[in-house]
Prior knowledge:
Blueprint: H1 13-18, H2 28-36, E1 40-44, H3 51-62, H4 89-92, E2 100-104, H5 113-130, H6 142-152, H7 158-162, H8 164-176, E3 180-185, H9 189-197, H10 200-215, E4 221-228, E5 244-247, E6 260-261, H11 262-271, H12 278-285, E7 288-290, E8 293-296, H13 298-310, H14 327-334, H15 338-348, E9 353-357, H16 395-402, H17 406-412, E10 417-424, E11 427-433, H18 437-456, H19 461-469, H20 472-484, H21 494-505, E12 511-515, E13 526-530, E14 537-544, H22 551-564, H23 569-573, E15 579-587, E16 590-595
Parallel strand pairs: 1-4, 1-5, 2-3, 3-4, 14-15
Antiparallel strand pairs: 6-8, 7-8, 9-11, 10-11, 12-13, 13-14, 15-16
Helix pairs in contact: 5-6, 8-10, 9-10, 14-18, 18-21, 19-20
Amino acid sequence: MDRKKLPVGYEDIREIAERNLYFVDKSLMIKELLDREGKVLLLTRPRRFGKTLNLSVLRRFFEDERTEKGEKIDNCFVFEGLAITKCGEKYLEHQQQYPVISLSLKSAKQPDYHMAYKSLVYDIAEEFRRHSYVLEGTRLSKEDKEQFLAVMERKAERAVYARALRILSEDLARYHEKNVVILIDEYDVPLENAYFMGFYDEMIAFIRSLFESALKTNPNLAFGVVTGCLRISKESIFTGLNNLKVYSVLSAAYSSSFGFTEGEVKEMLEYYGISEKYQELKRWYDGYRYGGQEIYNPWSIINYVYDKTVNQENFPRPYWSNTSSNNIIWELIEQADEDTREDLERLMDGETIEKPVHDAESNLANSNEVQNELSARRFFEINENEPKAKVEFSEKNILDYAGMDVWNFLYFTGYLKECGQRQEGRNIYVKLAIPNEEIAYIYETTIKEWFGKKMKVTDKSPLITALEQGDCTGVENFISAQLLDTISYFDYKESYYHGFLAGLCSGIPGYLTQSNRESGTGRPDIVLREKKFMGRAVILELKVTERFDRMEAGCREALAQIEEQNYEAELAADGYRPILKYGLCFFKKGCRVLKA
């Protein structure tokens, strides 16, 4: 069977259609948009959930696209066989009927305002160039054409670029004699970047003017769609824009438009002949629930299926985690207080935590009472007295920027999933959990990296001194203190404690640490070898118990194993002396130690 290729990295539905690539049909989003008749929509989803591709679906369907000479471009073939074509004339009468402005703001992720502004100007100029056919004929005045050319050639005044979308919509409406559709992708990229790079004031002023002139007071607007990862506060960019409707991950509307449903995933696996991989795929990439819909991460699904079509023995990989920085997880772990650590450990053990969710446009309870007061702060908030310098990337700063607490931020950006909800007064509470193996991998590896870096700067002299002197109480106290100051995962399984102990013992001055190396007739958990001829050696064998009163017995079992397996044989043959042997037993955040 000659199967279609997968669209890895493709973000334009026309290109997918031209290349006859596999496409998961999201065209019913068009029907929902027309049925709801919203003037300006903000659709927020985590990164890599298909926002850019969906905007291309809207553009190719609605746009009366033209060549530079004004000749019509037919995009009807793009939608052949898609669900929207079966919805009736009521919807198809809108096909290829509107001038469309399509602008992505992702290029504005630059180190300073000058470069960010220039990048936006370039993209705006290119969108003007795409519509340069309006310069043909007499529908635009001489002055309008001169202004159009100035923008297109990147020679216009700054004030003109701040109103560029309004200007372009006026010119398009005049040429087509039809109001304009405006699509803006990744609206939050320039603002988030500007906040952390220290030029937020300049960028917010420009973006606000750009958006308000196009979407707030524009008589030539048919409707607008804006996408991003996080919601916009009405008090910031869209001040006074009463026709803005926000559809976040909490909304029932558009719940299946972003990401893949279970049926779509099973259909894809069957098409590529790997249906037997469903349970593995589900464990790794399922887990999201948006508006009552079970949703899979589309970026990870496409990459997983692609790798399996190359070699079915390929292991699942954390595709989504490799597409961007996961600094927020690092910051969360590094700055976590006791309550946050307890919540993280519960999440890592597969449990849920319940937190209030602050979403100004939430319609979970279909209640109009859930309004902006759910937000503790404005979405974009900056202290005007702070110097215009780079803002250190930290959990506090990113949450100040986002205007929400850490759990809300993790939920809205895809690091947590919803497992249930309830409303109490005006507050909405959501049960949160780690979505799947892929996201659990991010948390686990980040915890390990954080712990490794922490151990590099930790004074371990009390530990090695206690081991050398046979001070079991001193060893217990040091290890237990470190356990209390770290974050466990996998429900305190032996693999966690082994990794913890190996990290604790690594880098001890004067010693070489070996973990699970062959010795005698078995493998000791940890061996410390003093870096000198006929130096000391320390054998550490660990056990784990689920009961406090079994800790001493666990230590004795560990010591018995050292003797039974003759772990000291290789060390003695190499001349190490004395050889110190310790049995350790772990129970939650505590450690007992006995010496042979």
